[in-house]
Amino acid sequence: MKTTHQNIDDFKSAMREHGVEPPDVIIADGERHRYHIKGHKSGSLDGVYRLHLDGKAAGYFKDWKTGIEANWKSDVESNPLSDAERRKFAQERAAKEAEQTKQRIESQNKAADRARWIWDHATEITDPSQHPHLIAKKIKANGARLYRGALVYRLFDVHKKLVGIRFIRPDGTKRPLKGALKIGAFGLIGKVESGDTLLIAEGFSTAASLHEASNHPVFIATDAGNLPATALAVRSLYPRSKIIVCGDNDESGTGQKYAIEAATACKGFYIVAPDTGTDFNDTITAEVSNDQ
Known about the structure:
By secondary structure, the protein is of the alpha+beta class. The strands form 3 sheets. Strands 5-6-7-8-9 form a 5-stranded antiparallel beta sheet, with helices on one face. A 5-stranded mixed beta sheet has the order 10-12-11-13-14, with helices on both faces. The model has no long low-confidence stretch (mean pLDDT 92). The chain is elongated, with a radius of gyration of 24 Å. Helix 4 (204-214) links the parallel strand 11 and strand 12. It is built from 7 helices and 14 strands. Helix 4 packs across helix 7 and helix 5 (227-237) packs parallel to helix 6. The chain folds into 2 domains: 4-81, no CATH class; 126-291, Dna Topoisomerase Vi A Subunit, Chain: A, domain 2, CATH 3.40.1360.
C-alpha cells in the first residue's frame, strides 16, 4: 500500500521523466487543474494535470506548449484518503481558485485601462478607403477607429463598462486585447432606442452589414462561442426588446448551433445566413452587387 505522499511523488517523477515540470503543489482530488510551467511565458497556464488516489492512484498530465502528454497509474493499491487529507485538498483547491480569480480580475482591469488609452489615441475614420478590411467587406467604419494600422472597435460588459478592444488587421486577421474580459463582452453598432429590435451577430463586418441594411442596432459577440453569453447580457440590459440572433451558416454547424443556443438563452429569435459557408456580410454584399 502506498501513502498519499508516495503517490504524489511518483506522479511528479513520471511528469519529469516525460519532460513536463510539475507544479510545487499537486491537488489530488481527481479534478482537472491548469498551472504555470516554470520556464514558460509569464502568466501562461500551459500545464494541466488530474490525479486521483482512490484504489490504484492514476492521473494524466499535459504540456500544451510542447504537446507532451501521458497517463500514469500506480502499480499498487493506495491507502484510503483520511478526512484530514480530503480537507487539505479542498482547501488547496479553494485557495488556488481564489488566487486565479484575483489574477484574472487584475488582468482584466489592466486590459480595460489599456483599452481606454488605445481608444483615446485612435483616430476616427472618415472614409472606408482608409482601411483595406472596410474595402474588402464593402462596409462603412460604423464607429470603428484606426490604431497603428489596425481597425479597432470597443467591447463592453453587461454594466456598459468598456472592457476591451478588438483589433482587425489590414489582411482581416482579428486579435483580442490581451487579458481582457471575453465571455459576455460585446461590441455595438448603432444606438439603442426604446422599442428597437436588437440584432446580435458574430463579427464586426457581419454586424456592420446588418446595421447598414436594416438600421437596427447590432451587438457584436466577436465569435460564435460568445453568442449565448452576449445574448444573456443584451437581454439583461433590454428585458422588453425583441432580440434576433443572426448566425453564420457554417459547414461545421458551429454558427447555427450557437445561434440557436443564444436565442434560447435570451428567449429571442434566430436566423441563419442562407448560403452555406457564408455570413450575412457575404449575403448582403452579394445581393447589393447583383442589384447594381
